[in-house]
Amino acid sequence: MMGNQKLRAFLNYLEAQNDWVTASALANHFKVSTRTIRNYVSAINKDNPIISASQNGYKLMTTESQEGASSSQTQDTPSKRINMILKELIINTEGLDIFDLSEKIFVSTSTIENDIVIANGQVAPFHLKVKRRHDMLILVGEETSKRKLMSHIISQEASPHFLSTIKVQRLFKDYNITQLKENVISILEKNNLLINEYSINSIILHLVITMDRIKNNKSIKQNLQTKMLKGNSEITAAKDIADTIENKYGITFNEAERYYLVLLLSSKTTLLNYQTLTLDSLTGFVDKHYIELTQKLLEKVHESYFIDLSDNEFIVKFTLHIRNLVFRAKNKQWSRNPLTYRLKDTYPLIYEISVFISNELQKMESIVIKEDEIAYIAFHIGAFFERKKELETKILCAVVCPNYYDMQINLVQKIEAKFKDSIEIIQVTPEIDDLLNTDKIEFIITTLPVKSLQIPTVFVHPYITKEDYEHIQNLLVKLSERKNILKVKNYLEMFFNEELFMKNIYLDNAEEYIKYMSEKLYEKKYVKKDYCGSVLEREKMSSTAFNNNVAVPHSMKMDANRTGICIIINDKPVKWGEEQIQIITMIAINQTQRQLFSQVFESFINILSEWENVKELTKAIDYKDFMDKIAHLMDKI
């Protein structure tokens, strides 16, 4: 490869630039097309990736980053590639040329064509389809469906423990993260500031990044308004944390650094802070310009990537990060990130969104943002999706309790110790009227009589009793059941279709029903024309009728265009071979969706095997009633 003079010249030029160079700038320099530039990069990177590609253009990697990229090449899986293809098709709403896509992700068009077949199986549950018109690929479907798909892809990418102590320790070997975490928790508890595991990891990451920047570069030096959150515990805690770090590591937090540490501790990090920093109150502590700047950036992400980051807690923390990032960029005080290149490979979509934000920010503020800073934006985005995924499994709760002595903190600590895996306390307040975000609160634990809020409420004693715990547990069971049923219904709707649900269809025999239902599946493009023959062939081998009024005709092959279920429920039994049948369920399965469907299939068959369940399902008056009944029964399994 290196014998090629053009490629050697290309590498020499990139090395001399020692920075990102756009494809168009390279094309102008070498008097070739941008497609040729992409071909150069593809050829050079074929055996050993030494050129990094992003929306900033191309850049020759350092030795360290080449090692990181090489060690992670094995992670370049087909599933990751398909996710990147789907992402491109989601954001390019008018379609994308297959050759341009091929050059962008460095694979052949034939590979993309094969990936599209698999991708269509994956997007079918979202009622989407990738279609090809000549050389153009386009994702067809409703915008709301595309948003759901994008969130699903990113949630798959955001792994658990995104900000775990272990990962932070691997990043920054010069600091004892476990000891720092213990010190911070101790200081917060001393100041009656309760904190959960997610928030403490976020604070530790912020602290270590700040420490590393101060140690390797310079502190933030800027003129700040001296206004602080008045008389709250966060100021004391921030001072104690900064003093502890200075004594242990000799790293000095100046006034500006301490100010932002106070804001971090105030940004909904702690539960017992009545003056907690919110998006509304942020203007008193951070220049309005940066609040508006952050909101514009997140609006652009929403427009371009179909994802919504408009969570108040996230926006507050992200605004603080953007404010400091802009200052560092203008003063060339960069923060290093030792995991930048591995982060790019492990979380490619999260990283790309971060690159997009950085590019927009560069244009808005006329600054240059280094790659390590982009990686820190990725930490914020990844942590947001990790948090979102975590909260889906928990019930969100508020605690109402007067602040007499240590009553509040003792009550909250006991509740969290008992129910930490199933509930998330998002607010603690002495008065019911002080509750915020009541639309997010799923139930309230209170030591005071409260007016009706249309929110399930549990009354407990200030010094919580065994009976109080039981009352909370009983309500949690009911709320969890309700939440699970809704989740199951959403999942079922991927494979059930109201147009494939029918009542009281009376035909002569099993063969007539198989032909009728196969035609329905074919009309809706679930199966190919020959599907009926495959189902009849299976039926001849052995009847698919159960001895409890159910038949489940199906093909022996998983060759459906997409997975779907056609259902007929009859008030009166009909003849199916030697059996009498009331429920007929024809299941078409797509090979690529087998794993996704297996959970539904197993539960569904288990339900149909019980006579009492079948009896209940035959009472369904319409599709909605049937979905309610099946979801309720599946949740009980």
UniProtKB/TrEMBL annotation:
Q: Which SUPFAM superfamilies match?
A: Phoshotransferase/anion transport protein, PTS-regulatory domain, PRD, Winged helix' DNA-binding domain
Q: Which residues form the PTS EIIA type-2 domain?
A: 494-637
Q: What Pfam families would the database entry show?
A: HTH_11 (PF08279), Mga (PF05043), PRD (PF00874), PTS_EIIA_2 (PF00359)
Looking up InterPro entries in the UniProt record yields: BglG_antiterminators (IPR050661), HTH_11 (IPR013196), Mga_HTH (IPR007737), PRD (IPR011608), PRD_sf (IPR036634), PTrfase/Anion_transptr (IPR016152), PTS_EIIA_type-2_dom (IPR002178), WH-like_DNA-bd_sf (IPR036388)
Keyword Lipoprotein among UniProt keywords: no
- Which UniProt keyword terms apply here? Activator, Repeat, Transcription, Transcription regulation
Domain PRD per the UniProt entry, residue ranges: 172-275, 285-391
Determine if Cell membrane is one of this entry's keywords. Answer: no
Q: What is this protein called?
A: Lichenan operon transcriptional antiterminator
Q: Which organism is it from?
A: Anoxybacillus andreesenii
